[in-house]
């Protein structure tokens, strides 16, 4: 009887010791994890802040005392841009303060060398202090300022653009008196590189701090390029509102000495002025025996400018309607960088009835854009109720079945 009792006592002590040891190991792991500093790559990707691991240690990265922060600020070189992570809100934005605080002292201490390439239309941080003295009319004309940096990496043969922030944007939402801004950037004239930032909610001073690296661009070609920034406000229920744009020709800008910090005033979008939307050549043939309609999209010419580059990437969407209800849709391939496109693409539609009175066909000429919604360049409608050449063309199709009839049509506004 004594032996089982002894065995039970030793088993109980062993179980208690095992549980205590396991709890102690878990506490040690938890404390080591909490004290461990997040890796450099994670912080860099998440916040996009230009920090370097050799200048930081585990004590000075996060949760430093005020004395340590003052030492770090004094030790930083004057020509570097420092963004304080502690002062950001949940959206990654800096809180709104008075105009004096809004223009950071680090920007004021920048050497004139970094801003040597600025033009007369650039806005300095000192000028932002005087915004309170502007009249109400002047404030309406001001669309804000964008801050960015340019750099060329010779080792990787890459062109690097860092979109830092924008200040003083107008409110596009009249109810909340704020905006949901984001920036779309295109490298002209080829428009091969199109990128955009994330959308920052309900702010007029968005801090993006996003870096875009474009590989395969030789340094000798940098002088021939132009940067186009389009500043927009996201709209969930309709097309995004265009706040303005900034055009930066890179001719004369020297990037061999390192990173160049720049800022530009945002201007109104250059609305294209054209007497028309261009012309579209289409050919149609109605087969009464099979109740099919053959549509050939042939050519487009004199298409207007879709952006500042003067070049469009057009394609055509073909929609078939029966009694104002779309029953079929097709589209052509995209033709790159041309105002005079040659498509030569054929589509066959099945007609649900023998009569063409309730049938209409719509041609939409659009400009392809990877970064945002495709913009409508022009529209053409053919049908019995269509006006002008669209109605005449449709009448000839009905009168002469099995004959392919082609005509040029002027496009109307989309």
TrEMBL record:
InterPro entries: C2_dom, C2_domain_sf, Synaptotagmin. It holds the Pfam family C2. GO terms for molecular function: calcium ion binding; calcium-dependent phospholipid binding; clathrin binding; phosphatidylserine binding; SNARE binding. One of its GO terms (cellular component) is cytoplasmic vesicle membrane. The chain crosses the membrane at residues 6-27. Residues 60-82, 115-135 are annotated as: Disordered. SUPFAM superfamilies: C2 domain (Calcium/lipid-binding domain, CaLB). GO terms for biological process: calcium ion-regulated exocytosis of neurotransmitter; negative regulation of secretion by cell; vesicle fusion. It comes from the Eukaryota. PROSITE patterns: C2. The keyword Transmembrane helix applies. The keyword Iron does not apply. This is Synaptotagmin-4. It comes from Dryobates pubescens.
